[in-house]
Amino acid sequence: MFTYGIVLAAGRGARMDSDVPKPAIIVDGKPIIKRIVDSLRGAAIDEIIVVVGYKKEYIEAILKNEVTYVVQKELSGTATAVKEVVPYIEEKSEVIIIPGDIPYLNKETVQSILNFHHIGHNDLTVVSMSLEDPTGYGRIIKDQNRVKIVEERDATESEKKIKEVNTGIIVTLEKVIKDNIGKINNNNQKGEYYLTDIVELASLNNQVGVYHMANSIPVIGVNDLNALNSLQEKVKNNWQNDENVVK
Q: Taking the mean position of all CA atoms in its chain, how far away is CA 6?
């Protein structure tokens, strides 16, 4: 099956205190967006589409003609970003969607996510991790065969106690996106169109799986400088195995 890699890189990332968009920030000698694209390429993804918006020239200067660019005209949420990509996706294909703020993604992680998705014969797979302090992250809610993601601002007090959270990485079929992306609304605290809502919509009529990453380092995104500094410190203490994959 033809596989697209979609990287969401249109946002500003204002909390990073930088003039450049967050995906263009250099971490350990390489822009975040470049590391993500290299990881997708290394995992033999057939075509990579990068959704750009805020100061897109920075992203384009880094990646040049390596990828296909799609401009998100209205920065009203991640579902809006993916909706812009729909016309570029061929029928009977699959997509892996990656937020553009994951500094330590690697090809082995991408491959393991896809393997889980394929072995489970899932129509949609959401990637999760567990954090001692899940503040700020969408919580993974499981109810029998149903799965949904509730963002922090919209979560109840009991839901906020859940430590299994969303990484933002989703693998799904082209048909699942096209059938459900138009059903997503912005009835939430931020008034945005969340791509995460597609998980609950898909679970109504499709096989949905949750791939829990025991090691969060390769899939954790960074919202601000404190989070980035904390992650880099964690990496320094964990970088060690035969394949140079963060453990």
A: 9
H or E segment to which residue 179 belongs: helix 174-180
CA distance 222 to 2: 30
Q: What percent of the chain has pLDDT over 70?
A: 94
Q: What is the pTM of this model?
A: 0.93
Domain count, the chain: 1
Cα 100 to Cα 105, 111, 120, 168, 222: the distances in Å are 10, 18, 26, 10, 10
Which contiguous run of DSSP H or E holds residue 185? none
CATH of the domain at 123: 3.90.550.10
Q: Work out the number of other CB atoms within 10 angstroms of the CB of residue 164.
A: 16
Per-position DSSP letters for 101-131, written without gaps between them: T-TT--HHHHHHHHHHHHHTT-SEEEEEEE-
Determine the Cα–Cα distance for residues 61 and 51; give it in Å rounded to an integer: 14
Range of the domain at 136: 3-109+116-238
